[in-house]
Specification:
Layout (H helix, E strand, L loop, with lengths): L1 H39 L21 E2 L2 H7 L3 E3 L1 E17 L4 E4 L5 E6 L7 E2 L4 E6 L1 H20 L7 H18 L4 H10 L6 E4 L4 E6 L6 E2 L6 E4 L3 E9 H4 L7 E6 L2 E18 L4 E9 L10 E16 L5 E3 L2 E9 L2 E12 L4 E5 L6 E3 L3 H16 L9 H6 L6 E7 L6 E10 L10 E8 L10 E11 L2 E8 L3 E11 L2 E12 L4
Antiparallel strand pairs: 1-19, 2-21, 3-12, 3-16, 4-11, 5-7, 5-10, 6-9, 7-8, 9-11, 12-15, 13-14, 13-16, 14-15, 16-20, 17-18, 18-19, 19-20, 22-23, 23-26, 24-25, 24-27, 25-26, 27-28
Helix pairs in contact: 3-4
Length: 515
């Protein structure tokens, strides 16, 4: 009989072990397909999870005491209309003013004899001799003129019709040819006085400037198509600046510009936009802007690398000071001052930034006062105020206990501090409880809790201070509490009577004394 019982026990134990092994094997099999599925179906190529942005922090209007505003350094500014310029900073190079470059060429072939200006970048004045030239064709034209003048003198008293007029016509034609050869009136007068052709004709500079190119040499044969000199007047120069194509639409001829160069760190040269070259460089996506400017003292030399600051007038625009704008994620916020330490957060839409501030597109009007300093602290307190206002405490005695004990009496509390407002350090607290029948509520247990959320950006941890007030009679409860910082605190007043909570009141209170 004992063997039979032992056999039954052994069978039961074996069945239990087999069952446990089966469930263990099945659970392990159920986990493998998940891993296999992950291996068989890897993430799709090109799929990038899109992070879900946290909703922007809510803001609420706040009120600051004069002491608090002074301790954190609050100042305000005005939103107003101003005449502004759109500024573009870029670089450029100095170049010759092509309108002030003159080429020296002869109108007749000949041989150069004497060269007076024989070096590049030599300064010459207008009318200064450059070289002398002998030209057989010019000499022949001079002889024709002298012969025509002699014939006109002889035939001037002829009685034959048409002889005198014909002689005068030939003389005028010969004189006109000399003028076309670029002989001046003094040269023709000298020719008439001498009665002999001028063989060595002096060629003078047509302008004043620097010789930037010289191709003439002594005893060289020159022809009209040859460029002998290039003379540039550098009293005015061009600056070729490079601007990106998206900035080109903001510029127009006549806009002002300021030029600075490292050679003269204390000098600022003024220029004007003369032309926007209608071609974009496909490699750099830039457009060339030509600036014209005077060059006093020839301080700027062609080829110099300069810094350019372009100013495009944009008329009168509504501007808000840049220091008033708080960048809150993908939105921009300013705090409007309503006076008496009251600040209201306002989300705005802004345009381009200038030296005076941001252009206002939407959200502000001219004359609005905005906070221009301590905005980080104001923003933090606004967020705390919004967070405190979003919490709705349950009504006193809510829940099953209230249902069993019947309706609760309505209790109000009034908190006063000494000093008022409270400050960093020790403070005297006093709470006066009044029941719904306007009678003082005595015999209660009153707790006051001060809480300030942490600000990791400033390295500040959260602060939580609690004071248990003692019953002073006639519904008055008093005690002391030490605050570790100035700022806005979330205050909770809790009153309990008979083991039940008869009052829970929450509000914000600003303390002075700084962080």
């Amino acid at each position: 009989m004992n063997y039979r019982k032992l056999f039954i026990v052994a069978v039961v134990l074996n069945l239990a072990m087999v069952t446990a092994a089966y469930w263990f094997w099945r659970s392990s099999r159920s986990e493998k397909p998940a891993a296999g599925a992950a291996a068989e179906h890897p993430p799709m190529e090109g799929f990038n999870p899109v992070p879900v942005e946290a909703p922007p922090a809510k803001l609420a209007p706040i009120e600051l005491s004069p002491e608090r505003m002074q301790s954190i350094g609050v100042s305000t500014g005005r939103v107003e209309y101003k005449a502004i310029d759109s500024e573009i900073r870029t670089t450029g190079t100095v170049d010759m003013d092509e309108w002030r470059v003159a080429y020296v060429q002869t109108r007749y072939p000949g041989w150069v004899k004497d060269v007076f200006v024989n070096a590049s970048y030599q300064f010459v004045k207008k009318g200064e001799p450059l070289f002398t030239i002998y030209s057989p064709e010019l000499v022949a034209s001079e002889q024709e003129y002298l012969l025509a003048k002699t014939n006109a003198g002889r035939l001037g008293q002829s009685s034959i019709a048409g002889v005198t007029s014909g002689a005068d016509t030939l003389l005028r034609s010969a004189r006109e040819r000399l003028l076309q050869w670029n002989l001046s009136e003094p040269d023709i007068a000298k020719l008439e006085a001498s009665g002999k052709p001028l063989t060595d004709f002096g060629f003078a500079s047509p302008v004043s400037g620097y010789v930037v190119e010289r191709m003439v040499l002594p005893n060289a044969y020159v022809q009209p198509e040859m460029r002998l000199y290039s003379i540039a007047d550098l009293s005015s120069v061009w600056v070729n600046a490079q601007v990106f194509q998206q900035d080109a639409g903001r510029l127009k001829p006549g806009d002002s510009a300021e030029i600075t160069v490292d050679t003269y760190p204390s000098r600022v040269f003024h220029a004007r936009v003369e032309q926007l070259i209608p071609q974009v460089d496909p490699a750099t996506r830039t457009l060339r802007v030509r600036l014209a400017m005077p060059n006093p003292g020839l301080a700027l030399k062609p080829g110099m690398f300069v810094n350019v600051r372009l100013r495009a007038p944009r008329g009168r625009q509504l501007l808000v000071p840049a220091s008033a704008v708080v960048q809150a994620g993908n939105r921009q916020v300013v705090f409007l001052s309503r006076g008496q330490g009251s600040f209201e957060p306002r989300e705005v839409q802004l345009g381009a930034r200038t030296e005076e501030g941001f252009v206002v597109i939407k959200g502000l009007r001219a004359g609005d006062a905005v906070s221009t300093s301590a905005n980080f602290l104001i923003d933090s307190e606004s967020q705390l105020q919004a967070a405190a206002g979003a919490y709705t405490p349950p009504p006193p005695g809510a829940g099953a206990a209230a249902a069993m004990n019947g309706p609760e009496q309505q209790v109000s509390a009034e908190l006063t501090t000494g000093p008022s407002p409270p400050h960093k350090g020790k403070n005297r607290l006093q709470v006066k409880l009044t029941a719904s029948d306007s009678k003082p509520l005595s015999g209660a247990k009153v707790t006051v809790r001060f809480f300030m959320a942490g600000m990791p950006e400033m390295g500040m941890a959260e602060m939580n201070v609690t004071a248990q007030l003692s019953d002073q009679g006639n519904g008055v409860y008093a005690g002391e509490l030490e605050l570790g910082s100035g700022g806005t605190w979330q205050v909770t007043v809790i009153a309990e009577q008979g083991g039940k909570t008869v009052l829970t009141k929450r509000f914000n209170l600003s303390a002075t004394g700084g962080m």
